[in-house]
Amino acid sequence: MLFDATVIPREPNRVMPGVVHLPAFFTSDEQREIIEQARELARSVAGTPVAMRQPRVGKGKMDAWMLSLGWFWATNPYRMLQEVDGYQVPPVPENFQRIAGEVMDRAREIDPRVGETPRVETALVNFYPPGKGMGMHVDAEEESENAVVSLSFGQDCVFRIEGHDTLLMSGDALVFGGPARRARHGVLGAKKGTSTLLEGRLNITMRQMEK
C-alpha cells in the first residue's frame, strides 16, 4: 500500500546553508491541480518547436522531458531564447509567482540565507520517467543570484547537492539560494511504485533570469 506523503510527519529542515526542504507543502488536491496545469501547458504547444522534448546534450539525449516557459533552454551550445523558429516560448503562468512567494516565505523562516523571492521569469517543467534522473550540474545560465524554487510531484527521488541527500516525495518543495545558489546538484532516478498520481516524477523549477 502506498502512503500519502501529505500525512507522513516530516519536518521542514535546512539541508545546508541556503538549502531548505519543505515536505508536504502541497495538499493532494493542489498537487492534482498543478499536474493537470502542467499537462495542459504541454498539450498547448505539442507539435511545435517549443514542445516538451528530450534535449540533446553532447551526442546523446537527456533522460528527462523538458518544457520551457518564459525562456527556452536550448542546448549544444547552451543558450536562452524567447522564440524558436518563429514560435514564441509559452509564458510563465501567473500562479507560479504566487507559489514561489509562498514557498520562499516559508523557507526564510527556516533559513534566511535562501535570500529574496525570485521574480519568476522562466520555469522548467521536467518529467522524469520511472528510474530516470539528472546528473550533477550547476545552474549557471541565469544572471540573477536569487533562489531557485523546486516543486516535486509523483514518484519519490533523491535530490543530491554538494554531498547532501534529501528524499523528495510528491508535494514537497525545495529552495536553494544564497550561498548554495551555484552549488552542484542532481537527482537520482524516480522510484517506481511510490506514487499513485504519476508513473514517473514531475518537477517544476522557477527562476529569475535577469538581475
Automatic annotation (TrEMBL):
Is Iron there in the keyword field?
Answer: yes
Q: Give the record's keywords alphabetically.
A: Dioxygenase, Iron, Metal-binding, Oxidoreductase
Q: Which Pfam families match?
A: 2OG-FeII_Oxy_2 (PF13532)
Q: Which Gene3D superfamilies match?
A: Alpha-ketoglutarate-dependent dioxygenase AlkB-like (2.60.120.590)
Q: Which domain of life is it from?
A: Bacteria
Q: Does the keyword Glycoprotein apply?
A: no
Q: Where is the Fe2OG dioxygenase domain?
A: 119-210
Q: Which InterPro entries match?
A: Alkb, AlkB-like, AlkB-like_sf, Oxoglu/Fe-dep_dioxygenase_dom
Q: What is this protein called?
A: Alpha-ketoglutarate-dependent dioxygenase AlkB
The organism is: Corynebacterium coyleae
